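If you are new to this repository, start here. Below is one unmodified record pulled from the training split, so you can see the exact layout before writing a loader.
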Amino acid sequence: MSVIFVLIMVSLIVASCFLGLFIWANKSGQYDDTVSPAIRMLFDEKKAKKKEK
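And here is the target side for that same chain:
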């Protein structure tokens, strides 16, 4: 029975480490989109509808 408590504690520690690393990577810009700005000019822009008076 004590093995279960040890495994639960170890899994919580590992999960919190992964969560901390994910938050750190998010704040440091690891997941910033660098591809879309380069190809954005290839897409057609939708023309804005003119307001009728």
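Two things worth knowing about this chain: The longest helix spans residues 2-27. The radius of gyration is 24 Å.
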